[in-house]
Design a protein that fits this description.
Number of strands: 2
Oligomer: single chain
Strand content: 5-15%
Distance between the termini: 12 Å
Length: 141
């Protein structure tokens, strides 16, 4: 979707804009925060702070705990002390996963809740995007 926004933007008809885009393109997709910042800065699309986005952040953080922390909170997650309590609360409330120290205990509901939260975010993002750009189309691959 983000690639379609850039492709459809009139600025991309200029060689300078295309060259600048090529320079920074990798950074656009590196993290979810980066995606959101670019969407906001380049297209005035804000998908941060609302319930769907906050709940989706819990899915992203849990994925990072699984992938980068081997099923535990990562060093980076633990080092952000002010965010640690929010993270633990989100894991519990949103995903039904419990945190004790660094250890995460997964309930049988985590996968289904993660899928529902992810779906809700995609629907929310689509609504925000299509409200601002009703003619945007994504090629089917």
């Amino acid at each position: 979707m983000i690639k379609s926004l850039f492709s459809a933007d009139a600025a991309m008809s200029f060689p300078l804009a295309r060259a600048l885009h090529r320079e920074v393109e990798d950074s656009i997709f590196r993290t979810w925060d980066a995606r959101r910042k670019w969407l906001n800065a380049a297209f005035d699309i804000n998908v941060s702070g609302d319930k769907a986005s906050q709940d989706f952040d819990a899915v992203i953080d849990l994925r990072n705990s699984i992938v980068h922390g081997d099923g535990q909170l990562t060093d980076l997650q633990v080092s952000k002390f002010k965010d640690l309590f929010r993270l633990k609360e989100q894991y519990s409330r949103v995903l039904s996963a419990q945190v004790n120290g660094r250890i995460i205990t997964f309930s049988s509901e985590v996968a289904v809740r993660s899928a529902i939260v992810s779906r809700d975010f995609v629907l929310h993002f689509d609504k925000v995007l299509l409200t601002k750009f009703p003619t945007i189309a994504v090629p089917v691959s």
